[in-house]
Specification:
9 helices; 34% helix
């Protein structure tokens, strides 16, 4: 089973008429929806409000066949993200996060025995006190031998001290088995350093592989033997990019599950051919997501047998 840990929130997305339409989302939440819709056994770990938005978030998880037994509920409000869309469909965000439910997640204790992998990322690794809870869980599950996956999914507006966050990010790497990062986030994290040189340094610290999303240039991975393996993009008409990277993360985890490689050791020994297949699958899933409004990852029936 894949446990996805982190925030669930509501995106307020502009419509063509200028109104803001609420859509269910959050980086980790989207990852869980993507993996669940692709038939990977998935559970979601978070604290979710008991308000109307929270009820809708939980109902959508269930519809995606995601186990919600690790979801904590509380009376605090749901986090809101106000989304602005650029002309190319890329998204920028503003957040309402004070006193919201997902920040108050409690340590769940031992995870279910069937857990093989735990995925982390986005706001939940920034906003305290929840960030420290998730950080402890990351380190504990790594020590327990489970594959830990991280997508930092940087939101600079919520990071008051960039250098402190960069140092904290590097401190996580010894306990990360699979790192997924967009090229924009990698550049932000690298600061003044050459980005590919820095990515190689990150891998030396811990991750068995580093997957890089590059927008219209497709996906790449720095594999276990240090080779850069690339997969070309899938050409589609882009409606918006909301949830694209989260779909890649969820699809990669689903692919690893299906192929019996959901462990750090297995990820480190994937061949170039394996990685091209995994990246092609994840890219195909993300292409479907960006071809429609909001974070709507595909279900397995929308992908062909050959793509698996």
């Amino acid at each position: 089973m894949i446990v996805v840990a982190g925030e669930a929130l509501v995106d307020l997305v502009p419509t063509t008429g200028g109104a803001l339409l609420p859509q269910l989302g959050g980086g980790p939440y989207n990852v869980a929806i993507a993996a669940g819709r692709l038939d990977a056994p998935t559970a979601f770990l978070s604290r979710v409000s008991t308000d109307t938005f929270g009820d809708a978030l939980v109902a959508r998880l269930k519809d995606a066949q995601v186990d919600v037994s690790l979801v904590q509920r509380g009376p605090e409000p749901t986090t809101l993200a106000v989304v602005g869309l650029a002309a190319d469909g890329s998204a920028r965000y503003g957040f309402y996060v004070e006193g919201t439910a997902d920040r108050l997640v409690a340590d769940p204790g031992p995870l279910p025995a069937a857990t093989q992998a735990v995925s982390f990322g986005t706001l939940s690794m920034v906003l305290e006190p929840g960030a420290s809870v998730y950080e402890s869980l990351l380190r504990r599950e790594s020590a327990n031998g489970r594959l830990t996956a991280l997508d930092p999914n940087i939101r600079p507006v919520l990071i008051p001290d960039a250098d402190a966050y960069r140092a904290r990010f590097r401190s996580w790497l010894p306990d990360v088995g699979l790192l997924k990062v967009s090229i924009e986030d990698a550049q932000w994290l690298a600061g003044d350093a050459d980005v590919m040189t820095e990515i190689r340094r990150w891998q030396e610290i811990g991750p068995a592989a580093v997957v890089i999303t590059r927008g219209g240039d497709g996906l790449a991975v720095l594999s276990g033997d240090g080779q850069l393996v690339e997969a070309p993009p899938v050409r589609v008409d882009v409606v918006d990019t909301i949830g694209a990277g989260d779909t890649v993360q969820g699809a990669l985890l689903a692919w690893l599950h299906r192929h019996g490689t959901l462990s750090k050791d297995a990820v480190g020994t994937l061949t170039d051919q394996d990685w091209r297949a995994a990246l092609t699958f994840a890219g195909a899933a993300a292409a479907i997501t960006v071809s429609r409004a909001g974070a709507e990852p595909p279900r397995s029936a929308e992908l062909t047998h050959q793509q698996w």
